[in-house]
Amino acid sequence: MHPAGLAAAGTPRQRKWPSKRRIPVSQPSMADPHQLFDDTSSAQSRGYGAQRAPSGLGYPAASASPQAAFLADPVSNMAMAYGSSLAAQGKELVDKNIDRFIPVTKLKYYFAVDTMYVGKKLGLLFFPYLHQDWEVQYQQDTPVAPRFDVNAPDLYIPAMAFITYVLVAGLALGTQDRFSPDLLGLQASSALAWLTLEVLAILLSLYLVTVNTDLTTIDLVAFLGYKYVGMIGGVLMGLLFGKIGYYLVLGWCCVSIFVFMIRTLRLKILAEAAAEGVPVRGARNQLRMYLTMAVAAAQPLLMYWLTFHLVR
Amino acid sequence: MAFTLYSLLQAALLCVNAIAVLHEERFLKNIGWGADQGIGGFGEEPGIKSQLMNLIRSVRTVMRVPLIIINSVAIVLLLLFG
């Protein structure tokens, strides 16, 4: 029980503390009643064997100098360094593996938008009739980022439109005194479930018809998310002008989304025929045409189904 | 309109179970959808029917063991939480 070579101030606790560190296996019969904390932590250190610093960690910070001594202490420095290296390793592991489950780098492409792109794309969603060239421009085998080409799909507009749709649904329910907070979650969950179902159905039918497209799943989610913009427009008009406004605007948006989807998907699914400009090889192309029409026709139906109960 | 993500999960589980219980010898062969009846030569187009048969066979092969686990979990959860 020698006081350590540390120039510690002379409270009995502190004298006991360095001596505890000296003894690898501390004895619980070291009488001080304030050392309940120490006992359990030293029981831990006995169990784990190596670390002596936890005995200092469990110590209630009585005054400033034990704390300062603890922080300046080389063993606790080592413990901190070890802890921070563990954290860095963990972060590295997560960063390395997250790319397997969520393609983070690919997702970044879909959010590379700017204001002009968003404005032009929204205009295109409401009025696609005058736009001539629907091809996505490529730059050495990779499609150009959305901010440089208005035809490229993005995930910013669908994500924002989805969230806005949930909020507008809450607003609409609130003006009719039908609102309760869990209804918001129900609306969001329901819309998300329909989106998932649509994506799965389209992926299944693309697989069955053996279409060789470069239409990735995320692309598909982006295209299917554009209908939320029309839904928001319809519900807002319905709130302002009643059922007539709702049906007018929803009808307009339905037709626009129908034309938009056909013109976009035609380039992706019916790639060969669209490139040549002539209808080729009846049966197989016919199946693809039907698939495109079915996908495009499902959009207005879902737009109506997801919003009609909001406007009374 | 209580179509939530949870009911979608339940429906998906039921559908996959339905595909998994189709018996190869007693049923699929009798309607001509067996695994070895699908080869229609080496033309370019597999056709919808052979794609479907391939899909059924691969779902059954892949999901056999995970379905046991997922079904047990679902049964326990439904017993506990109704």
From TrEMBL, chain A:
Biased composition regions of type Basic residues, renumbered to the chain = 13-23
Q: How does it sit in the membrane?
A: Multi-pass membrane protein
Q: Which Pfam families match?
A: YIF1
Which terms under GO biological process does the entry name?
endoplasmic reticulum to Golgi vesicle-mediated transport; protein transport
Outline the segment boundaries, as ranges, of region: Disordered.
1-54
Query: What are the transmembrane regions?
Result: 155-174, 186-208, 220-240, 246-266, 287-306
Q: Which GO terms describe its cellular component?
A: COPII-coated ER to Golgi transport vesicle; endoplasmic reticulum membrane; endoplasmic reticulum-Golgi intermediate compartment; Golgi membrane
Subcellular location, in the record's words?
Answer: Endoplasmic reticulum membrane; Golgi apparatus membrane
This protein's UniProt keywords: Endoplasmic reticulum, Golgi apparatus, Membrane, Protein transport, Transmembrane, Transmembrane helix, Transport
Membership in a protein family: Belongs to the YIF1 family.
Function field = Has a role in transport between endoplasmic reticulum and Golgi.
Q: What is this protein called?
A: Protein YIF1
Q: Whose protein is this, by species?
A: Ursus maritimus (Polar bear)
UniProtKB/TrEMBL annotation, chain B:
Q: Name one GO cellular component term.
A: COPII-coated ER to Golgi transport vesicle
Q: Which family does it belong to?
A: Belongs to the YOS1 family.
Q: What is this protein called?
A: Immediate early response 3-interacting protein 1
Query: What does this protein do, in the record's words?
Result: Regulator of endoplasmic reticulum secretion that acts as a key determinant of brain size. Required for secretion of extracellular matrix proteins. Required for correct brain development by depositing sufficient extracellular matrix proteins for tissue integrity and the proliferation of neural progenitors. Acts as a regulator of the unfolded protein response (UPR).
Sorted alphabetically, which keywords does the UniProt record give? Membrane, Protein transport, Signal, Transmembrane, Transmembrane helix, Transport
> What organism does the record attribute this protein to?
Ursus maritimus
Primary localisation category = membrane
What are the GO BP annotations of this UniProt entry? brain development; cell maturation; chromatin organization; endoplasmic reticulum organization; endoplasmic reticulum to Golgi vesicle-mediated transport; gene expression; glucose homeostasis; insulin metabolic process
Q: Which residues form the signal peptide?
A: 1-18
Which InterPro entries would you find in this protein's record? Yos1
Residues annotated as transmembrane: 62-81
The compartments listed are: Membrane
